[in-house]
Amino acid sequence: MSDNIGTAVDEIVSDRLQLDADAFDDETSFEEDLDAESLDIVELAEAVEATLGVHIPDDDLAELGTVGAFKEYVENHTE
Description:
CATH superfamily: ACP-like
Number of domains: 1
Order of helices and strands: HHHH
Low-confidence stretches: none
Largest sheet: none
Number of helices: 4
Mean pLDDT: 95
InterPro entries: ACP, ACP-like_sf, PP-bd_ACP
Helix content: 40-55%
Domain Carrier: 3-78
Organism: Halorubrum pallidum
Pfam family, one: PP-binding
Protein name: Acyl carrier protein
């Protein structure tokens, strides 16, 4: 995974969920560990699209339960 993209996604997660960067890692579950609701996750996807130009369809978004899965998806869909 590109360090730049991983760092950008970490910054988006930290900013949108109002967390310190050391409060989560790639294994962290959005819902179980961070108590993120579906709207929070949609807002993360919108921020990724605005910042990195990667659109995450709702069907795909539902499958991205951890920070690491989210980052991997973004990396794999970055041009």
